[in-house]
DNA sequence: CGCCGTGTTGAAAGCGCTCTCATGTCACGA
DNA sequence: TCGTGACATGAGAGCGCTTTCAACACGGCG
C-alpha cells in the first residue's frame, strides 16, 4: 500500500484504470461484485489492494442518500449516567450491534431542553439514517422533536405520557418481571409484602409498581415507598418501612442498588434475610449482586440485549415497506433465585 | 417551513433561485456571508428560512474534504467502563466541547485486538477530521495503529511504552498530585507512609507510584501494595498492609474507590482515622467521597476538564502549521482536605 | 476622459461516486 | 444463418456543494 496522506487518496477512477475496466465496473466490484465476471472481479480487487483504495464516503452518500450512520441520543442528567451502569451497558449493546452492521454511531448527549434545537437541527440535517433515543422521562419533549425531524427512530424504554404519533420502542417486561418477583415472595408464604419503587417519572418504575399491584390486590399504602434508584434511597425507604410496618416479611425492590441499601438496613436492625424478611431486587447487575450479602435474588433483565434489540428494531424500521411501522418489542425477564428470597 | 421529507429537501440552487442570486452567492451567505452586500445577504437569509434549507453535509464534505466529525475511541474492557465514572465523565467533557464547536462525535468502542482492523480501516477511510483515543494500557498497539492511519489524533492519558512517533496527549499531573498527597501526610507528622497503588499496566498508576517515591526515598517495599482500582482490592491491600506493617500511620491510596475499601478495613480493625492512620485518596469522585466515613481527603483531578482539553488539543493539532505537533498538556491537581488526613 | 484598483457577482468546473441506459457479446433455437 | 434474450460492460449524467476565475460596476486619479 503506497504512502499516502488524506489528500492524495486513490479514487475509483484510479482503481478502474489500473484494473483496465470502467469506473462503473470498479464500483460494482467494490459494492459486492454482483453481475461482474470473475476475472474482472479479481483484477479490480487486486487493484484495490495494490492502491490501498478506500471509498470516499461523502461522495457515496451524496448519491445514495444513505449515510451508514445512526444517531444515539442520550437524554440524561449527569448523575444517573454515572451512578448507573445501565446506560453504558445499553450503549455497548448498541455499539456492538451497529458495528456488526458496519454502521457508525454518532453520539448526541442531551443535557437539557436548551439542546433540543441543536438536536432537531442535526436530525433534520439528514446526516444519519436513523436515530435511537433512550432514557426518556415522563414529560420529555424529545420524542415529539424526533418525530418532527422525520428521521426514522426508535426509543429505548417505553416513553411517558406523550400524545401524538408515537415511535416504536424496545423495553424490558418490567411489569411481568415485577409480577414474577412478587409472586415468588407470595409462594414463599410471605404475607406483608412491600415494594420499594423507583422515581415516578420513569415508566420502568411505574410498570414495576403496576406489576406489584397485579399480584397484590389493594395493599396497605404504607407498604409502598419510593426511592431514586440509589443505594442510599433504598436504605432510607427500608428504614421507614420497618418503622411503619414492622411486620413486613417480604420486599420487592425496584432495582438492585436500592436492594443493597435495604439489605444493609435489615442487617443493621438485626433482621435475618431471608428468614425474617425476604428481599427480591431487579436488574441482576453483576457488580451489585456480587457485593450483596446474602446473595440477592433478583429479576434479571438483559440490558445489553436491550441495546442490541433497539438497533434491530431500527433496522427493521429502515427497511419497512413504506408507511408500515414495526411494533414495539418487549424483552422477557428471568427471576434469578439466590439466597435473599 | 414547508412540509418536507428527507427526499425533497431544498437545495442551494432553490435558495439561490428564490433569493434571485446565483448559487455561488447563496453559498457565500450560508457560509458566513463575507464579501456579499447586505441586501443580498438578507434576501438569501430570508430564502433559507422560508424554504427551511439545511446544507447537505455529504456534498459539502466532498468538496471541502472536511467532515465536522471526530472519532472518539474507547479502548477498555467492559468491567472498567462500568465500575468507573471516569470514562463517562471524560466522554461528557469531550461531548460538550465538541458540541460547542458544532463537531459531531463518532464513538468507536474497541473491545479487543480483533477490532483493530476495523478501527484502522475506519480511520484510514477519512470519515473524520481527527480522533481522540483514551484509556490505553501499557502494551496497547492502538497508538501505533492510529499514527499509521494518518488521522490527526490525540490521546487521553499518557501512553505506555510505545516506541516510534508518539501522539500528543492530555493527562492529569498524576505524579505531582501524588507528591502533594504524600507531602501532606509527611506534614502531618506521619512516619510510616504506605501506598496502595493501581495496576501496573496503567501509566496513571505508575506515575502516582513515582510521585510517592519522589517524596519518600527508599521506603520499605512492604509499604507498597498493588490493587485494581476497585473497592475490594483496596480493602485487601489495606488488610495485608496492616498485617505486615502494623505501625503504618499514613496511607496514600491511588484512587478513591480503593480508599473506600481501605477505610472500611481500618474501621473493622478498630483503628481511628485520621488519629491512628491518616488516609488520602485520589480523584475526588463525588459519589465515592460522599459515601466515605470519615470524609475523604483526596487529590482532585478534573476529569471532565481532561475530556474538554483533549478536544482543544485536537483542534490545535488540526489548525497547526504543517508538520508542527503541539505539545502534550498536563492538568494540575488540587489536594482537597477533609477529615481523613 | 481614460485607466486602474477594489469590491461584488455569476458561470462553470469539478469533488468521487452510483446508477441508468445504451451497447456489445454470446449461446441457443428456429 | 440469423434472430433473440440474457448477461456483461462502459459512457455519461448528475448528486449538492465550494471555489476559482472572469466579468462587471464604480470611484478616484493622472
TrEMBL record, chains A, B:
Residues 10-64 form the HTH lacI-type domain. It comes from the Bacteria. This is LacI family transcriptional regulator. InterPro entries: HTH_LacI, LacI/GalR-like_sensor, Lambda_DNA-bd_dom_sf, Peripla_BP_I. Residues 153-174 are annotated as: Disordered. Pfam families: LacI, Peripla_BP_3. It comes from Streptomyces toyocaensis. GO terms for molecular function: DNA-binding transcription factor activity; transcription cis-regulatory region binding. Keywords: DNA-binding, Transcription, Transcription regulation.
Amino acid at each position: 500500500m503506497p504512502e499516502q496522506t488524506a489528500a492524495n487518496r486513490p479514487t475509483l477512477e484510479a482503481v478502474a484504470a489500473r484494473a483496465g475496466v470502467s469506473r462503473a465496473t470498479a464500483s460494482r466490484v467494490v459494492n459486492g461484485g454482483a453481475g461482474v465476471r470473475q476475472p474482472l472481479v479479481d483484477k479490480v480487487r487486486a487493484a484495490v489492494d495494490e492502491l490501498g483504495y478506500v471509498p470516499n464516503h461523502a461522495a457515496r452518500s451524496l448519491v445514495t442518500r444513505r449515510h451508514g450512520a445512526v444517531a444515539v441520543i442520550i437524554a440524561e442528567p449527569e448523575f444517573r449516567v454515572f451512578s448507573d451502569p445501565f446506560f453504558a451497558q445499553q450503549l455497548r449493546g448498541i455499539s456492538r450491534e451497529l458495528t456488526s452492521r458496519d454502521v457508525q454511531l454518532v453520539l448526541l448527549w442531551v443535557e437539557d431542553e436548551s439542546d433540543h434545537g441543536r438536536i432537531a437541527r442535526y436530525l433534520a440535517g439528514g446526516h444519519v439514517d436513523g436515530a435511537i433515543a433512550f432514557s426518556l422521562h415522563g414529560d420529555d419533549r424529545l420524542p415529539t422533536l424526533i418525530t418532527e425531524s422525520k428521521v426514522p427512530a426508535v426509543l429505548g424504554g417505553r416513553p411517558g405520557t406523550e400524545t401524538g404519533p408515537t415511535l416504536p420502542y424496545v423495553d424490558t417486561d418490567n411489569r411481568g418481571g415485577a409480577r414474577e418477583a412478587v409472586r415468588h415472595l407470595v409462594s414463599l408464604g410471605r404475607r406483608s409484602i412491600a415494594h420499594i419503587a423507583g422515581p415516578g417519572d420513569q415508566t420502568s418504575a411505574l410498570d414495576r409498581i403496576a406489576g406489584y399491584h397485579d399480584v397484590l390486590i389493594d395493599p396497605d399504602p404504607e407498604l409502598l415507598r419510593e426511592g431514586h434508584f440509589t443505594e442510599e434511597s433504598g436504605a432510607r425507604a427500608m428504614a421507614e418501612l420497618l418503622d411503619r410496618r414492622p411486620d413486613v416479611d417480604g420486599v420487592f425492590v425496584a432495582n438492585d442498588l436500592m436492594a443493597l441499601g435495604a439489605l444493609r438496613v435489615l442487617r443493621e436492625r438485626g433482621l435475618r434475610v431471608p428468614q425474617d424478611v425476604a428481599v427480591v431486587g431487579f436488574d441482576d447487575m453483576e457488580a451489585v449482586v456480587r457485593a450483596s450479602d446474602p446473595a440477592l435474588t433478583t429479576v434479571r433483565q438483559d440490558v445489553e440485549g436491550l441495546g442490541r434489540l433497539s438497533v434491530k428494531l431500527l433496522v427493521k424500521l429502515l427497511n419497512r415497506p413504506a408507511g408500515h411501522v414495526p411494533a414495539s418489542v418487549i424483552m422477557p425477564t428471568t427471576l434469578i433465585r439466590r439466597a435473599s428470597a
